[in-house]
Amino acid sequence: MGALIVSLLLLIAVFKLWPEQERKVNVFIFPEDEVLFVEEMVITKQANAPASPPRPQVPIPVPNDVVIEEEIEFPEFDTMISLDSLSIAETTGQTGNENRISGNPDRPPRISRIVEPTLSEEATNSELKSMILVNFTVNSNGTVREAYIAEIRKYKGNSDEYEVVQDLGFDIIQDVLEAAYKWRFRPATEDGERVGAYIQEAFLIGF
Predict the structure, then answer these.
(1) 159 belongs to a structural domain
(2) Quick one: which H or E segment has residue 90?
(3) How many domains in the chain?
(4) Which of 91, 177, 184, 200 is nearest to 140 (CA)?
(5) Quick one: which of 43, 96, 118, 150 has the most CB atoms within 10 Å?
């Protein structure tokens, strides 16, 4: 305990008896003829404020379930399946296997019997001149499987000029097709066998 007291007294004596050092103070002395000017502060502000950003556009809902009350007219079924005179084609149905049709036989069909169409009195007195081209599908036995109109040429007077028409009237097309199915042919042959084949013939009206 005595030693602690003695050490404290020595520490106090050291702080009291320690020599003081002079503190240096830097003093700046302005010359007498030097004048200091202090400019007045000018407060500035922006004349025009920046434009504000555009307002966001609010989407306008568009209804997509609007019911349009409108009657839609559909063509009649009978009109859709109607055929013109050029598309008339009558066929002779067969039972069992169909005859083989050759597109390029060694020998084409040859006419063995011609049947002229029976025209009405109006058609005969009309002085109409026409050539009707008919496409035949001939079976291997010489009968006509199918016949349809390929082209109708209507001649002008006694000249060789003609125009292609869709119909001649007077039921001439129907009469020609009825006569075409009565024609007979010598069958076409290919590799020595009878085959079905195609052939085109002309009907002359008024010549």
Answers:
(1) yes
(2) strand 89-91
(3) 1
(4) 184
(5) 150
Express each pLDDT in 34-61 by its tens digit: 555 556 666 666 556 566 677 776 666 6
Banded model confidence at residue 18, pLDDT cuts 50, 70, 90: low
Let me know if residue 58 belongs to a domain: no
- Strand-pair category, 89-91 with 162-164: unpaired
| Residue 27: other Cβ atoms inside 10 A | 4
- Confirm whether 68 is domain-assigned: no
Neighbours of 8 (CB within 10 A): 10
Give the chain's radius of gyration (CA, Å).
Answer: 59
CATH value at residue 197 = 3.30.2420.10
Q: What stretch of H or E contains 143?
A: none
Q: Calculate mean pLDDT across residues 125-131.
A: 89
| Other Cβ atoms closer than 10 A to 179 | 18
pTM, full prediction: 0.52
Joined tokens for residue 121: 């009195």
- Is residue 137 in some structural domain? yes
Instruction: Tell me the C-alpha distance between 97 and 186, whole Å.
Output: 21
> What is the span of the domain harbouring residue 186?
81-93+100-205
Highest mean pLDDT range out of 2-11, 40-49, 82-91, 174-183?
Answer: 174-183
CA distance 150 to 132: 8
